[in-house]
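Researcher: Go.
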Amino acid sequence: MRAAIYRRPGPAAEVLTVTEVDTPMPGPGEVRVSVVVSGVNPTDWKSRSGTGAVPGGFQVPNQDGAGVIDAVGDGVDLARVGERVWVYFAAWQHPYGTAAEQTVVPADHAVPLPDGIGFDLGASLGIPAMTAHRCLFADGPIDGRVVLVAGGAGAVGHFAIQLARAAGATVVTTVSSPAKAVLAEAAGAHHVVNYRTPDPAAQIRAVAPAGVDRIVEVALTANLELDLAVAAPNAAIVTYANEPTAPTLPVRDLMVRNLVLRFVLIYTVPEPALRLAAADLTTALRAGALTELTPHRYALDEIAAAHDAVESGVTGKVLVDVAGAPAATT
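Model: Structure:
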């Protein structure tokens, strides 16, 4: 099969190539997916540009994608062949990511796509949508609560807005420009605050006088002061992105207000929480609560440019077209 691979870490243009590799076969409890669309996330270029060795001699990048199951391993219902699915964690501790014509994942990591949901949206879920779900719900229900989403124009922010709104929360989000405000509003945020305008804390407090109950944070070091200024007593501040410098924590303030400071790395979230996220995302998809981000499309042969686009911080979703909709086989 054709696949994008790298054999050592490094810059995309230097290490990523498209070549022929052996087609993977599903083992017990696994399914093989003919990939139609592969999604690119920051975690993908960070893994590729790391410093560690590449186990097994090569790595197909990209965790997320969508396609059709074309083979199953022992213990998996044969009826799943032909099923349209979105996949997550394809490249996590595994050589076959989604930037290839086929990938193999545990059966639970290939989630059925509801009727009417396209491969583009399916390939956009995975890392960002499951991260958003964990950030929102790890500390309990949010129905009737106020949620603040930092960076509402990003992929995690986009799905956090939509999942929070679907769960009955009032959603406030921060953005850095009028153009990004348009995207956050389109995602469904009730209130959008440009944090570069004067006194964003006062603007947030104006719509949430008692404070916000849950904060989905993309830049804890930069935003902790603002978060503390608007957090309600017993609120949870949940951060999912690493930063070069660590924040200085005002421990006494956190203690007195009984605030929760939670860190999320989606790869190490407990399996029951991942299964709950997949189930809730399916419910949201069926309800029409989740929408696509602005797409930036690349062919498989343009994989290096796709990775570079994400690394440069492009707004929207970078998608790699791997193949047309495949015909399922047994």
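Model: Residues 62 and 98 are 5 Å apart (CA to CA).
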